[in-house]
Amino acid sequence: MYKRIISILMMIALLMISTISVSYANKGEYYLNFNLDKEIFYTGEYITGKGIVMHESKGAKNTDISVVVEDITGLSLYKIDQYTTQENGEFFIKFKLPLTLKPDNYVIKVKAFNNMEERTFKLINKENPEEPKEPEKPTPSTSETENKVGKTNISKSPYKKEIDCGWLTISKNEIGKTVALIEVKKEKIEKQISNKSTEKLVIRGDIKEEVDEIIVRIESNFISHISENKKELEFIINELLLKIEASVLDVKDSYFIELRINKDNEIFSKEFTQFSKVYGMRFVSIKGNKVNDINIENPIYMAIKYDLDKDSNFEKIGLYVEDSTEKFKFVGGKIDRDGRIGKEIKIPGKYVVLQYDKKFKDVDIGWANNAIEVLVSRDIINGVDSMNFKPNNTITRGEFCKILVKALDLKPVNSNIIFKDIVDNQMYSEDIKVLASLNIVDGHNGRFRPNNEITREEMVVIIVRALNHIGYEKDNIDKDLKFIDKDNISSWAKEAVSMANSVGIVEGIDKKEFAPKSKASRAETAVMVYRLLKISNLF
């Protein structure tokens, strides 16, 4: 009798467990999480936020996300269907509401499959802003790691809150600076390591508070674990994006590795427009009170989100680094789809996004003004002095080599090419060697003639070779030149002139003649190189 009762009870229990499991599986098949970047937005400001879609504990890539904005009564006011999740299941929204919407409280609904997240936000006029409420102060940190790590100078009574990758602590250090400490916790990002579908591990920190320094702290043995799994570390900290191979961080004889980011104030001359804060960055290793800089030999990728609200010419915007004389120099950069400008850089270093607007009193040429200004802003070509560019002056073969090497950031390969008239440490000698090693330039009878004025057809041949070197391809090139002086073009230059004309690098003088033997002017040089950069998508 007792055995029968026990058997019946066990069957009932199994049925209950089965029902619960099925119910859980159906509800948990897809998981959606979404948050706005803040709770108060100005009219005309971008509404921004981020989220993630998970499927069976993995990021659901290429998932369509729909967004609807409603008023507090549930009336639909604005709808967007253009967002898709990334490889790791994350998605980011960014849109502007119509200016006809009055300041009020609104609801944003984000949907993926049958899952929906709702968030409320307030829209206010910029002329009469309301300050967001101060965040609640979480419990003071009692983290053991804070006591073990030296020279971070986190105060004894910081406030602390949980974030996606671990814990965020905001405090004042001993000299009154506000410090944000992000402590990365293994259990928070272990799923990213086990995810075989992605080769990167993302550490994200959105810090709303105004801080002077940001510290991202990771245990050294965890860095080793990341490296063993061949993952790239990707830091997304407010406006900054940093990508680095975990294997290049030296974790020997250390407890922690820290990425330290300082925000500095700099004053720039009136010809510069500042589009970001100045960021000083370095990696350090920590053991007890010992803090050592980590020297990283290889360049790492960094991008800074710049201020989209300022008037700008994106072709003139670039990353600048502070040099040994404490002056900032242009290092390049290309704008990505998220409004960041990025490039491979060296760390430690201090970087900022600037736009340089240089005007010359002798430049007023409609067809060349912008090209000259852009190339000057990118430190590709300079004026003959601080006030004059001399656009009608000619340019030598050596000078053009230097311009082209800087424009395309070309590096040499091993080569045995030697010119009789080029010696080491001679002006432009290194640039000529770079182009010769890449088969972009050659000489005649063992000589390069660096001080000879370059002709238009010589310049075009060199530009087309450079275009081929960087992998540019174009089909259906019109080889039937329309220039009235095409018979004057040298046989060795005709194919290059056809190519340059087809892709828009040269149009000819008055679009009728090419003038192949004429000496190229500085203005013409600037325009051709500008067009080369433009069609190669190097801005």
TrEMBL record:
Residues 123-153 are annotated as: Disordered. Signal peptide: none annotated. Pfam families: SLH (PF00395). Residues 123-137 have a biased composition (Basic and acidic residues). Residues 355-414, 415-477, 480-539 form the SLH domain. This is S-layer homology domain-containing protein. It comes from Tissierella simiarum.
